[in-house]
Design goal:
With 208 residues, this protein is α+β, with helices and mostly antiparallel strands. The chain has one domain: Aminopeptidase. It is built from four helices and eight strands; from the N terminus they run E-E-E-E-H-E-H-E-E-H-H-E. The chain has an eight-stranded mixed β-sheet. The model has no long low-confidence stretch (mean pLDDT 89).
Amino acid sequence: MQFVLLGWPDEGPTLRLDYRRFAYAGKFVMSNTGKAVVVDRWDTRSVPSTEYDTGVVAAVAFNADRTDASTLWIRYVTVRADRKGETLGPRLCAFLARAARGAGYETLKIAVNNPFAYEALHKAGFAWTGETTGLAELVLERPADAPATRHTATYRAGLDRYRDRDLGDPESSFLDSRAGATPPTLVAAARPTAPLSAGDGRSLSDTP
């Protein structure tokens, strides 16, 4: 697999994802956000298509904060339905952090509206800030050059916010399974490493 930066927001990259297999597929057609993807050319479950970009198994869309040019917001994360559970989302977000550092960004943020995304982003080195958006999303952030310091009490408090919403399954069962838990283990890509730069060709081969 390869983790590939398709372009920054000012470069207007677009991506055609199959709406039947990816959540938020329509958001990736827009050219006002940057894009990064995980490409698996050996994926036997890819369906050849002239309408959609094939080989893509996960994608993120992002843009800079409107008032703080040093902060990059991840707007959408999507993983192909049949490839969920492989930590592709967290690994891609960690790859983006490395690329963002090389581009001069200092902080990455994301607002998440469900406990699964909350858990996945903690694996990528993000932590809850204690803040929420007007849409009741929890705001998570991490430095571009290293994982955030993840405090157990704060992590659990974020999960409690979702418990207060009286969610149904599978969210409620997942929250039950995380009762009294500590933050999840970081994916390898989320650990401190050198930033990506233009000389890296905007891509990184997957490593265990």
